[in-house]
Design brief:
459 residues, alpha+beta, Immunoglobulin-like, 3-stranded antiparallel beta sheet, 10 helices, 19% helix, 33% strand, elongated, 135_t:CDS:1
Length: 459
């Protein structure tokens, strides 16, 4: 078989199509099981560009689990876009052999295992894992069908009164001997919806000459033209063909490559690729934590990321929370820390009432950074077990005192920490807030804010 040398490689998705990856993903060698099946005919209608993409690349849309669509969309933005045209696909497949992996435990190659473990330890695991899967593939099939295929694919502009045809039809396969109904149905869809070529007669009346799309032939997987009236002969030649002429005509039952690893490693990979259960609701993570030692007579500090890990971040769309802690580990709730000038290279921290709080000397500011790892380009291995349970924002007009009830998620861990910050217009940068928390009824924490400067502000 001409394509068997790469069948142990994963699959890559791109705008250019589906290709096998450069490196083998597993060590198993599966011998083909020869099939005794007739040809199959399928007619599929869809307005989804992902269906068109999959069908063109020998994948039945029904073979993709919907829960994996987000992963494919992350790989290929083209995959998620809808089309305003109707895609009409006719396929005739002559399967000759099948490589079946359904009942076999595939062992990842040593090279793949090492590459994944190295990527996980990197400061930007999302980027590094993406590189690994671009080398070894994102998906594996549960079975591979080899043989011959003829198909035609076109896009038609639908009339307003034909919207009912936008749904997929006729996914079920039938034997070639019963294909006339489907072939006739295919031609009828083309006839009805292909605008064709029109001319005006001598009286100025528009006359429709013909359809622009030629339905007299199909195309083989080798790009050979097969006339419709010669399909019977083509089918016969498929069953007489030699094994080295067989091609992959269907990748069936695709699943993510990371599922060949053990459960714990699968869970970690999914989390770092932001496709685990929690990430579907909240992608933000605690990316980094740090301490800023307080010096005598200094209330303004600047943190440079190059001092922490030697490079800048990819984005400044992160949030910084923090507080002042004494040498004994106690929180100085009377002090307010203002974080500003946040950029890809660092941020500033200012102790608002530094000179009025004598306990500040010898203390430190403890801070955490929260953001989406794939956007920020950094995710410390030391903070990956810290989960962000909830993020929220509330707009308010602050007078002298404001009380805001904060809903707390149910089943919140006992050691959870609530961080609150106030964002206000730059014209009111002199405002000084004091925070007080109290436990309310049920899952409520009341946040009290007092404006020490007695100024009003919208935030």
């Amino acid at each position: 078989m001409s394509e068997s040398k790469n069948l142990d490689h994963g699959l890559l998705f791109s705008e250019q199509g589906v290709q096998t990856a450069d490196e083998a993903a597993y060590n198993s060698k599966i011998q083909p099981e020869f099939l005794k099946l007739g040809c199959q005919v399928k007619l599929i209608l869809s307005t989804k560009r992902n269906d068109s993409f999959l069908l063109y690349n020998n994948i039945d849309p029904s073979d993709i689990d919907p829960e994996h669509n987000s992963l494919i969309s992350n790989i290929n933005e083209f995959f998620s876009n809808e089309s305003n045209k109707l895609h009409v696909y006719l396929g005739i497949m002559c399967p000759r052999a099948e490589l079946n992996f359904k009942d076999r435990k595939l062992e990842p190659s040593k090279e793949l295992t090492n590459a994944v473990n190295t990527a996980i330890q990197h400061h930007n695991p999302y980027q590094e894992l993406s590189k690994v899967f671009k080398t070894y593939g994102y998906f594996l099939p549960k079975s591979i069908i080899l043989g011959h295929k003829a198909y035609r694919s076109c896009y038609l502009i639908m009339k307003d009164d034909s919207c009912q045809l936008l749904d997929q039809k006729d996914f079920d396969s039938v034997k070639y001997s019963n294909n006339n109904d489907i072939l006739n149905q295919w031609e009828e869809y083309i006839r009805l919806h292909d605008p064709g070529t029109s001319t005006k007669d001598g009286n100025g009346i528009i006359m429709r000459d013909k359809n622009d799309f030629d339905t007299s032939f199909l195309t083989s997987i080798n790009n050979d033209k097969i006339m419709k009236d010669g399909l019977e002969e083509w089918v016969k030649s498929c069953f007489e063909s030699k094994i080295d002429s067989w091609k992959v005509i269907s990748w069936k039952g695709l699943y993510p490559l990371y599922e060949i690893f053990d459960k714990e490693l699968q869970k970690e990979i999914k989390s770092l690729l932001e496709i685990d259960d929690q990430a579907e609701k909240l992608k933000e993570r605690v990316l980094l934590t740090g301490l800023i030692p307080i010096k005598d007579s200094t209330y303004h500090y600047h943190v440079k990321f190059s001092d922490h890990f030697g490079f800048n971040l990819s984005s400044d769309s992160y949030k910084i929370f923090g507080k002042l802690i004494t040498q004994n580990g106690k929180s100085l709730d009377t002090s307010v820390i203002k974080f500003q000038s946040m950029s890809i290279s660092g941020f500033s921290a200012i102790i608002e009432n530094f000179y009025t709080n004598k306990k500040s000397t010898g203390s430190h500011i403890t801070w955490i950074m929260i953001g989406i790892p794939s956007e920020i380009g950094y995710f410390s291995p030391h903070t990956r077990n810290i989960s962000v349970q909830n993020l929220g924002c509330h707009l308010f007009k602050c007078n002298n005192i404001y009380k805001y009830p904060l809903d707390v998620p149910e089943d919140l861990p006992a050691n959870s920490v609530v961080y609150v910050s106030v964002l206000h217009p730059s014209s009111h940068c002199g405002m000084k807030f004091t925070f007080q928390n109290e436990i309310g009824n049920g899952n409520i924490i009341n946040i009290h804010l007092s404006n020490d400067d007695k100024n009003d502000s919208n935030t």
